[in-house]
Design goal:
The complex is a heterodimer of chains A (about 575) and B (about 750).
Chain A lengths: L9 H12 L3 H10 L23 E8 L8 H9 L10 E8 L4 E8 L8 H5 L5 E3 L6 E3 L9 H5 L6 E3 L4 E3 L5 H5 L5 H5 L5 E7 H9 L18 E3 L9 E2 L12 H26 L4 H27 L17 H23 L1 H8 L6 H31 L8 H30 L6 H27 L12 H10 L3 H25 L6 H27 L12
Parallel strand pairs in A: 1-9
Antiparallel strand pairs in A: 1-8, 2-3, 2-10, 4-5, 6-7
Chain B lengths: L1 H15 L5 H5 L2 E3 L6 E3 L6 E6 L8 E7 L2 E7 L12 H4 L15 E3 L5 E3 L2 H19 L4 E5 L5 H14 L5 E3 L6 H11 L9 H5 L2 E5 L3 H4 L1 H8 L6 E5 L5 H5 L2 E3 L6 H14 L5 H7 E2 L1 H7 L5 H8 L3 H13 L3 E5 L1 H4 L4 H14 L9 E4 L6 H7 L14 H11 L14 H9 L5 E5 L3 H4 L3 H9 L3 E6 L12 E4 L5 E7 L4 E7 L10 H12 L11 H12 L12 H7 L2 E2 L29 E2 L18 E6 L16 H4 L7 E4 L1 H7 L6 E5 L4 E8 L7 E5 L25 E7 L2 H13 L1
Helix pairs in contact in B: 4-23, 5-23, 5-24, 6-17, 11-14, 11-15, 11-17, 14-15
Classes of the chains: A mainly alpha (about 575), B alpha/beta (about 750).
């Protein structure tokens, strides 16, 4: 054998690299796959899918034999691969229940996908009718091309089934492989379970409803009463009373939905400001309301438009936002969009009426008679406020229907109302100070200053109420049970604590310190200092509300099927 | 005019309500033929081919969906006799890790400033040769060793072993298989006369009693569990495991014994059977040796004493013995709970003893069966040329050496006359300054080796560390002086041998990225660079090597000289060894060994082998009162996660934060709440992990999955004296509470390192 180092010739490496690049499997083994019979797969699962179509009053449902589910999770990856989902996208999940005693410990893995509910919350919540429940099979199908990517269904479904695909800007979900079933093939997960734990069965809707009423579904799963899921979990074993999901004590922040945060806070600011405009007009006589109105209406309108602009960013496919009228019959999201749509249009007209003089001058159009304009201002202003209030109510309802405890009607309602009041008042404080300062010497300027003092004091009071209410969540830290609200409280003192502090300080600075300073220093016409203070107060308060709304999303505890460790 | 309006109206309607379109088409499925049923339209194949999976030893057949020769998707092969159309998540995701962005695409060489920088192949090869040779010349041929693997095809293992030992003159080489099946190898060799797992998977379906010892197939081998689920005989399923595992949950009898008391338990069962005469005397007399001596020493294993030692009620012991006594076809299955133990060999042999004394061998549904770990651990057992000479032969046997030299056409002087040091002895050799260079192929020592902190120091003492891997980012590769970029499973040809001795083919269905080369070509190029290429002239392709291996196996118990070609293996759904020349295999065969009761010892008899149980290498103490168990965490993770963590889907299927299972009783003592951070400390190190408070572990025990790199900072380096396999499943630890901030800092530091 030759010794001494041989430098390897480059051509040899090139040849190896060339060989490495040649794909030879087909050429070498072609004979074999030509012989593969078509349709040879059915024999493997013929007992796992129904032979007939459901009769009236029936539908398809998943059945999971828990005694056979041993947690290999092949169903998850098979669904991913055989349905061509995007990298990391999965429509099936496997969680873990555990409990028992040291002597008889129990653990049980649970595979879960869409439950093709009798009363699907995804479908009811969808503003664009992108969900269909097949009248024969009962499969809840998502129409991908119809979806505008509002993600509301991800909030309404108690089982985290619809998955938002940010790249495509839409939600996608399990359709029980409906086209496979249609030709007698089993869904991917059914095909893939080594232990035949998953099957498709025909269920009677009445029986499913009866089960749901009795609360029989799966230990530690969200109440079946909400959507009446059709999946049947069966097991010969009894679950011990202390059965809990492995992730029961895990608390993770939820999605923050930033555009929604901005949209909610600014719509409420805008609505609050328009309402305050009406309040001031109704309560105050004299020149002050007219003096402040142009500045005020412009500020409120700008914020409102900014809010609706932000809302568009939330949509995965904003170009199709116009479809949102389709869901009016069932979806609070549709109703909110319509209400705020009207609000915005009315607000523009209102602002135009308020700014009629310069507008007419610029556009060279005849002036509207003053009396007509006055009553227009009154009625239109009232209409704007009404639409806005309706919109805020719809916003509240959007969250209320998810049945998450943190988003209950009273909690959400109070929060959104307080934001509307606080930011409406803060805007009024700022605009009246500004109008007073700009209009120094004119009629009503000093009166505006006096209004500012009252508003500032009221504002401080409202912010106190808000903060006290928000702090009341911490009562739940003492709950014996790890309920939804305790999880929220734990998150707020845990991972979300920095955001909580920011929210508190912004509110104290903008809602207590600055307004009280303004109230103490404002006497008659507002000085530049007061205007700047009011502006800073509005800025801080808005920021504080934005933080609060971020927490509203991030700290919510989501109902879900049992999850895994961690 | 009307039609125009209608069209417009329709378009407007469509715009309002779009039931189909490009997004819908994204998920469209179509029947693609090839017996696949519906598949995604966008990845519909124009051809398919079957190959075996490259993760575990089950050896599932996967149908790769090809488009213009390139793999676009895969699904488990319906007709394959191993998996019958099923796969675990790793199998389903097998193609994904190939496309990972951190693949090694060129050789990397550490420069004077300590940075690993890309170099061309000729530079890398020359560096390898010059530096290895320099070390060998200075410190002797023994000073450079290699660590092989159970993850590459048999042909590549054989080439590596032959090149390193016959070509480069190395003496020492071992494999990561030392960490998973060395114990079974030694146990089988001593008991049966050859390393021969006797079973076929059909046995899972044929048994009326299945006894699993230290095995959690639901998680570790889900597709073998599939076969258990298909058993039509309503079998008794016994699981002997300290944890209430998924498999224990599915069992009809769970024996939650104290860790590492399995040897005592098995002797206790043997005692009961022997004392009651529930044995197969005819079988013992005809086919075994040493039973009476074995039975004589069993008398000390009184049920009460055994039950107390094992921490179980006497009734459980009785029930276990009764199950075995009454079973018509009893099969015993063991995995790492037995193998990774300080007395693993004797424990495995105690299982073998039970099977022999009850005559549960050689018949359908019986056997003392070791389930292997890696996809080609069985290939390495025969052809890694490390402890054993090629073909399951012996370096110390002159005839064997001559047979090999003849078969390879080389001078017998090139074949070392002694076996290698074991893995732990190689590591110790580094510490002692005897090993100066190490060549690591397709394994991740810096993650998987026991007692990691010491190992990191040890690796620093090397003058030259070469890592040959698919990824330059493994814990070991980042410590290397030279990284050689390798093609992976799916990017090369060859054969694997699965747990039931079945050969399966792997094929090239994807292009390796950049300049990555199949290990086969890397070895060939290194042979060229070393100047010993002429020795491997006949080793021209993997299939040519397969023909050479056939010759090497001739006359051995594993003789597979009757297999014709890759195409034959492919067409028949794999072929089990032995298959001597002249025997014709049939499709989807299920063959087991010892049907005639003839074992591989010269006298044809199997041996009863036993010894006194030994004390735990590291018992719990006041300072470290908890016993740390380690093992597989989920079926979505593979060993050190070099590949599985590259798949987004797999990453969703297991906890991404390391965790420890703690009994609620122990947690309460410590004031530890569920899901809180906790520090697990052993005498060797401390790691901060999440606490999963669950009754699945017994009070006094904690469990950590082995897939997280930090677990081996705790383990205690003890070894089975016969197999040198590390005892991963036994060391003493304590838990300490930590606050959130400390925990996060510790986690962050770990992520950075």
């Amino acid at each position: 054998m030759a010794h001494g180092s041989n430098v390897v010739r480059l051509p040899l490496i090139q040849a190896y690299l060339q060989e490495q690049r040649e794909l030879t499997a087909v050429e070498k083994f072609a004979r074999h796959h030509d012989e593969q019979p078509a349709g040879a797969t059915e024999q493997y699962y013929e007992e796992l899918i129904p032979l007939s179509k459901p009769k009236p009053g029936e539908q398809y449902g998943f059945q999971v034999d828990l005694d056979r589910c041993t947690g290999c999770k092949a169903c998850v990856s098979a669904c991913h691969s055989l349905n061509g989902l995007d990298e990391g996208e999965t429509w099936r999940f496997v969680g873990l229940l555990h409990g028992g005693t040291p002597e008889v410990p129990v653990q049980q893995t649970v595979t879960t996908a869409c439950h093709h509910c009798v009363d699907p919350a995804c479908m009811k919540g969808c503003p664009v009718n992108a969900y269909e429940k097949d009248p024969v099979t009962g499969i809840v199908k998502h129409l991908d091309d119809q979806c505008i990517g509002c993600q509301y269904c991800t909030l309404t479904c108690p089982y985290e089934v619809p998955q938002y695909n940010a790249k495509k800007g839409i939600v996608r979900k399990c359709d029980m492989c409906s086209d496979r079933l249609a030709v007698g093939q089993a869904p991917a997960c059914v095909q893939a379970c080594p232990n035949e734990a998953i099957s498709i069965r025909i269920v009677s809707r009445d029986a499913v409803i009866e089960d749901a009423q009795a609360g029989g579904f799966l230990p530690a799963a969200p109440s079946p009463g909400i959507t009446v899921p059709t999946t049947v979990y069966k097991s010969e074993r009894a679950f011990p009373r202390n059965t809990l999901p492995a992730d029961f004590y895990a608390v993770h922040p939820s999605h923050q939905h930033r555009p929604l945060v901005v949209m909610l806070v600014l719509t409420q600011l805008s609505v609050g400001a328009f309402c305050m405009d009406r309040v001031v007009s109704a309560l105050v006589s004299g020149a002050a309301p007219a003096l402040v109105r142009p500045v005020h209406s412009l500020a409120a309108l700008c914020m409102g438009l900014l809010a609706l602009g932000a809302a568009v960013f939330h949509l995965g496919r904003p170009l199709y936002a116009f479809r949102a009228v389709l869901g009016l019959r069932t979806s609070w999201m549709s109703r909110e969009i319509v209400a705020f749509g009207l609000f915005a249009k009315a607000a523009i007209v209102y602002a135009a009426v308020v700014w009629r003089e310069p507008l007419c001058a610029v556009l060279h159009c005849p002036k509207i008679p003053e009396t007509v304009a006055r009553s227009l201002e009154t009625y239109l202003g009232g209409f704007v406020a009404l639409c806005g209030a309706l919109g805020v109510f719809c916003s509240v309802m959007i969250y209320q229907v998810t049945l998450r405890k943190l988003w209950s009607f009273s909690r959400t309602g109070f929060k959104f109302l307080m934001t509307t009041i606080v930011l409406g008042a803060s805007t009024t404080l700022f605009t009246s100070a500004l109008a007073s300062c700009l209009g120094a010497g004119r009629d009503g300027a000093a009166q505006l200053g006096a209004i500012g003092v009252i508003v500032a004091k009221a504002l401080a009071l409202a912010v106190c109420a808000e903060l006290v209410f928000e702090a009341s969540i911490f009562v739940h830290l003492r709950d014996k049970q790890q309920g939804e609200l305790k999880r929220t409280a734990l998150l707020l003192i845990g991972e979300l604590r920095p955001l909580g502090w920011l929210r508190l300080w912004a509110a104290i600075l903008g809602g207590l310190f600055l307004p009280l300073a303004i109230a103490a220093n404002l006497d008659g016409t507002a000085s530049l200092g007061v205007v700047l203070s009011a502006a800073l107060s509005l800025f801080c308060l808005s920021l504080g509300e934005l933080f609060e709304r971020t927490l509203f999303f991030a700290a919510v505890s989501v109902p879900r099927m049992p999850g895994g460790v961690g | 005019m009307t039609s125009k309006w209608d069209t417009l109206l329709l378009r407007a309607k469509d715009l309002m309500r779009e039931k189909s379109g490009s997004l819908t088409r994204e998920l469209e499925r179509k029947d693609a033929g090839f017996g696949l049923g519906q598949v995604p339209l966008k990845s519909a194949p124009d051809a398919t081919t079957t190959m075996v999976c490259g993760f575990c030893s089950t050896g599932c057949g996967l149908t790769v969906h090809l488009k213009e020769g390139r793999a676009v998707n895969l699904s488990p092969t319906r007709g394959y006799p191993v998996n019958l159309g099923m796969a675990c998540p790793k199998g389903w995701e097998a193609l994904t890790p190939l496309a990972a962005p951190d693949r090694a695409v060129t050789p990397l060489l550490r420069n004077a400033r300590g940075e690993l920088l890309p170099v061309e192949w000729p530079v890398a090869l020359e560096t390898f040769v010059t530096r290895v040779r320099a070390i060998q010349e200075k410190h002797g041929p023994e000073s450079v060793a290699f660590i092989s693997t159970g993850q590459i095809p048999t042909e590549e293992m054989a080439l590596l072993g032959a090149l390193a030992k016959f070509g480069m003159g190395m003496i020492h080489g071992d494999g990561n298989t030392r960490q998973c099946m060395a114990t079974s190898v030694v146990a089988y060799k001593e008991s049966f006369g050859f390393d021969a797992p006797p079973f076929t998977y059909q046995d899972f379906e044929e048994s009326d009693v299945l006894v699993f010892v230290g095995a959690n197939p639901c998680i570790a081998h889900p597709i073998m569990w599939e076969r258990v689920c298909r058993n039509k005989h309503k079998p008794e399923i016994v699981v002997i495991d300290p944890r209430r595992t998924e498999t224990a949950m599915a069992a009809t009898l769970h024996v939650p014994l104290r860790p590492k008391t399995d040897l005592v338990l098995l002797y206790g069962v043997a005692h009961l059977l022997a004392a009651r005469g529930q044995i197969d005397r005819a079988y013992i007399d005809a086919h075994t040796k040493g039973y009476d001596e074995f039975a004589a020493q069993l008398v000390t294993y009184e049920p009460a004493h055994v039950a107390e030692t094992c921490g179980i009620p006497v009734e459980t012991l009785e029930r276990l013995a009764k199950c075995i006594a009454e079973g018509k076809r009893v099969s015993f299955w063991w995995t790492m709970g037995v193998n990774q133990s300080h007395q693993g060999v004797r424990t495995a042999q105690a299982i073998i003893d039970l099977a022999l004394m009850t005559g549960n061998m050689g018949r359908p549904g019986t056997g003392a069966n070791s389930i292997t770990g890696q996809c080609n651990a069985m290939g390495s057992r025969l052809f890694s040329n490390t402890t054993n000479l090629l073909g399951g032969r012996s370096f110390t046997d002159e005839q064997d050496r001559e047979h090999v030299a003849r078969a390879l056409g080389i001078d017998v002087v090139h074949i070392p006359t002694r076996g290698s040091l074991a893995y732990d002895q190689i590591i110790e050799g580094i510490l002692k300054g005897k090993i100066k260079g190490l060549w690591v192929i397709a394994t991740n020592t810096a993650h998987s080796w026991i007692n990691q902190a010491d190992l990191f120091d040890t690796l620093k003492r090397l003058e030259f560390l070469v890592v040959q891997d698919m990824y330059a980012t493994t814990e070991t590769a980042v410590r290397a002086d030279l990284v050689l970029p390798a093609a992976g499973w799916g990017e090369k040809d060859g054969t694997f041998i699965n747990s039931e001795r079945r050969f399966g083919v792997i094929k090239k269905v994807a292009r390796a990225p950049g300049h990555a080369l199949a290990d086969f070509y890397i070895f060939k190029a290194l042979a060229e660079a070393w100047g010993c290429a002429d020795m491997f002239e006949r080793w021209s392709s993997p299939e040519a090597v397969f023909q050479i291996m056939k010759e090497l196996s001739r006359g051995q118990p594993c003789d597979f000289s009757g297999i014709e070609s890759y195409a034959q293996i492919d067409a028949l759904g794999g072929i089990q060894w032995p298959l001597p020349t002249g025997q014709t295999p049939t499709a989807s065969e299920q063959r087991r060994l010892f049907e005639d009761g003839n074992y591989f010892h010269d006298d044809g008899r199997a041996r009863f082998i036993w010894s006194e149980p030994s004390a735990l290498p590291e018992a719990t103490s006041a300072a470290y009162p908890l016993f740390l168990l380690t093992g597989r965490g989920s079926s979505a993770q593979w060993h050190t996660e070099t590949r599985t963590k590259k798949s987004d889907v797999l990453r969703k299927l297991y906890p991404n934060v390391p965790y420890v299972e703690v009994s609620p009783l122990d947690a309460k003592k410590l004031g530890l709440g569920p899901n809180e951070w906790v520090c697990v400390r052993s005498a060797r190190g401390a790691v901060v992990v999440k606490a999963f408070v669950t009754h699945v572990v017994q009070p006094g025990h904690v469990f950590m999955p082995m897939h997280y790199a930090s677990t081996n900072q705790l383990t205690f380096a003890a070894f089975d004296p016969y197999s040198r396999q590390p005892a991963y499943k036994g060391c003493a630890v304590r838990l300490e509470r930590v606050d959130e901030l400390t925990a996060r800092t510790a986690q962050a530091t770990e992520t950075r390192s």
